[in-house]
Design goal:
The structure holds two protein chains of two kinds. By secondary structure, chain A is an all-alpha fold. Chain A has 14 helices and no strands. Chain A has one domain: ABC transporter involved in vitamin B12 uptake, BtuC. The chains are: A mainly alpha, B alpha/beta. The complex binds adenosine-5'-triphosphate and magnesium ion.
Amino acid sequence: MDKLVLYLTFPFVRYALIVGILIALCSSLLGVTLVLKRFSFIGDGLSHVAFGAMAIAAVLQLTNEMVIVLPVTVISAVLLLRTGQNAKIKGDAAIAMISVGALAFGYLIMNVFSTSSNLSGDVCSTLFGSTSILTLTPGEVWLCTALSVAVMLIFILFYNKIFAVTFDEDFARATGTKADSYNLMIAVVIAVIIVLAMNLVGSLLISALVIFPALSAMRIFNTFRAVTVCSAILSVICALGGIIISILAGTPVGSTIVAVDVAAFVICYITGIAVKGAGR
Amino acid sequence: MAYITVRDLSLGYDSQVIVSGLNFQVDKGDYLCIVGENGSGKTTLMKTLLHLKQPLGGQIQNGEGLRPNEIGYLPQQTDVQKDFPASVREIVLSGCQNRCGLRPFYSKEEKTLAAKNMERMKINELSGRCYRELSGGQQQRVLLARALCATRKVLLLDEPVAGLDPVVTTQMYELITELNKEGITIIMISHDIAAAVKYVSHILHIGDTLFFGTTAEYLESDAGRMFFALQKGGEYCNG
Ligand SMILES: Nc1ncnc2c1ncn2[C@@H]1O[C@H](COP(=O)(O)OP(=O)(O)OP(=O)(O)O)[C@@H](O)[C@H]1O
Ligand SMILES: [Mg+2]
């Protein structure tokens, strides 16, 4: 406990907590939509694209990687959505190609051009999240905060539309809701979330951060609103717990958070069975 | 100009034609019933009318300032995923989405409208329940309530009474007729031809023979007599 209080006096620990909580909150919001709309494949593909972009940024030795990673990921999100909608089978293949290609390409250029002496360390930290959450500069903290707030605002303002488009896209389209625009918006927001979450857990673990809280909440609750609120709260608690544990125990931040998320899922799964059993 | 004018329309999937040479029009205040055997292309036609599917040929014109957000729609099957967490109230309210435009939240009137339509469909006790835990007939009523929320000028119904019990079926027909009298244009797919001829003003028959005309004309036509006799075969023999 004393150790924790001591750590909290360091600004970088406070930054990590703030950013961690914001990112966890954002990524959980669209989890339900992602799971139910079968968009999870886009999430996976995008995280690999983000990895490739990150590699380019690293090679170019940009101080602020976001400048490249964010636009590349957003554009890929739009493209993937297009191909995914137009032709189902071809779309799947395109996503697999893009995501695996980006992964290979990213690793390749890191290998060829990197000047860093600790190459596998770099790759590993991009894939699994690093201590980078603990080395954030105030500028990055502000950028993360601004993007998170934007994501949350969009989500709240478009909550009802996201529900309509997720629940029954054909109905929404038939009755004059601009489903395509909202799908596009959802894809862009997902891209932003993925880029944000990469700071926290690395590109391979993003899907877990996005999907686990939603799946956990769906075990217990039955309405869209309750599931959304519950997964947001769960995600924040898990991120907070994960960061604190990783600081105290010296474990890697990203995988600790995901491990806590998995534990929460197991608890929710059991609770869900118990609640439904008691209800009968 | 009519609400919907269809000229020489061909329907189908991936260049495989199911129906072709379709001509008809729907005017304001009409009550059109689309009949035909299973697989004759009724649902496909409705999806094409809603621009959810591209026609293979021909054209569909919307007239008299009919905009998509004034249309209500009851799908035959929704691709709602099994595990979607959504309450009845949330779903019915989502029918009001097309009234919102860019406004983020539902207004008081829209909430009242949703409550009224839940009352009409006798699902207000279910309003907090989860959609996926309802029976088939209850789910049908939820989707009907949603369609009613979305309707301002035209209501398209794909087999609205399928899965409903006899009492609710009768009420359903009365409700649709009432809406039609209030000025809402109805396009309905139904296999219940006996009930249809009682209520509707026009009939479109698709299948091997195509027919479009008023109900009286349909009953006189070959297609109509055949189809009607087949469906009501038992009664005709007895009578
Ligand atoms: N997604 C699809 N892809 C290819 N063919 C399809 C598709 N959906 C339907 N069909 C075919 O189109 C034809 C017409 O189908 P449709 O659903 O329009 O029939 P329907 O008249 O509504 O039948 P029902 O009375 O059973 O509802 C059928 O032969 C069906 O096999
Ligand atoms: Mg059908």
